[in-house]
Amino acid sequence: MNKSLRITLSVSKVPTQFLKKFIQKKALQLELEGTAQLVKADNIIRIFVNGHKDHVDSFLDFLHKRPGDVIMKDIEVEPFFKEKDYRGVFRIVE
Question: What is the arrangement of strands in the sheet containing 33-39, beginning at the earlier edge strand?
């Protein structure tokens, strides 16, 4: 069974290449699809992730452990309906 989540991370500091080295790398390891984007003006990382329920849960656990040197202020998680086809890829939107 698949699960889709929209995850919003409020951060005060984002290390260089954080999205690629940690977020995208972990998503690919777990065979997840979706996107991640840093909104610099608001210091927010938006992640849309879709995949097998257990893999999505593991990804969420990974984020709660605060990977790398990121300093998170808040994390919001909510389900969403997958509206587009990510074609089995996890992309970084810049």
Answer: 71-79, 2-13, 44-52, 33-39, 90-93
